[in-house]
């Protein structure tokens, strides 16, 4: 996966109080048609990536308005970049569930972090463990057209972005 050249992104931290999502929005306004990310022949501009992230964020917010972590299930892809940005826009941490992760480890991570919903990149990323844990399963078919949405996205502050590190003791 390739990311844009540094000239298209802020090169230094201007304000430690500015959230990641606010910084991204500033780049979108400055360079909406610049390439944001490309992977396996697919390329999205900042505007396209932002729109997709907004649609995913709205879907998550509509189905799970809590502040618990959101599970993201999929491969390394442009869609997963948008899903991560969506969690930043919501001020919520995420737990990545990769396709190579055994169900037992997925179950452990989901229970330990308290996820209530999982965003699946595609139907083949859905797992039985998601249903067993009674998670709300979201995907491209549950996304909301941002132009038709009535619900505003929250404005997270700098302390809203949390990173979870889950370890397992043996």
Identify the notable features of this structure and list them briefly.
two-stranded antiparallel sheet; 5 helices; 6 strands; 14% strand
Q: What does the model show?
A:
The protein has 170 residues and is α/β, with parallel strands linked by helices. Helices cover 34% and strands 14% of the residues. It contains five helices and six strands. Helix 3 links the parallel strand 3 and strand 4 (94-97). Helix 2 (46-63) packs across helix 3. The longest helix is centred in the N-terminal third of the chain and has 18 residues, at 46-63. Residues 6-13 have low confidence and may be disordered.
Q: How far apart, in Å, are the first and last alpha carbons? A: 34 Å
Structural class: alpha/beta
Secondary-structure element series? HEEHEHEHEHE
Fraction of residues in helix: 25-40%
Mean pLDDT: 81
| Strand arrangement across the biggest beta sheet | 4-3-5-6
Shape summary: globular
Oligomer: single chain
Computed over alpha carbons, the radius of gyration is: 16 Å
Strand tally: 6
Strand percentage lies at 5-15%
Main sheet attributes: strand count, strand direction, barrel closure: 4 strands, parallel
Uncertain stretches of 5 or more adjacent residues: 6-13
* Number of helical segments with 4 or more residues: 5
Q: What are the SSEs and their pairings?
A:
Blueprint: H1 20-30, E1 35-39, E2 42-45, H2 46-63, E3 70-73, H3 78-90, E4 94-97, H4 103-113, E5 117-120, H5 128-132, E6 136-138
Parallel strand pairs: 3-4, 3-5, 5-6
Antiparallel strand pairs: 1-2
Helix pairs in contact: 2-3
In brief, what are we looking at here?
By secondary structure, the protein is α/β, with parallel strands linked by helices. It has 5 helices and 6 strands.
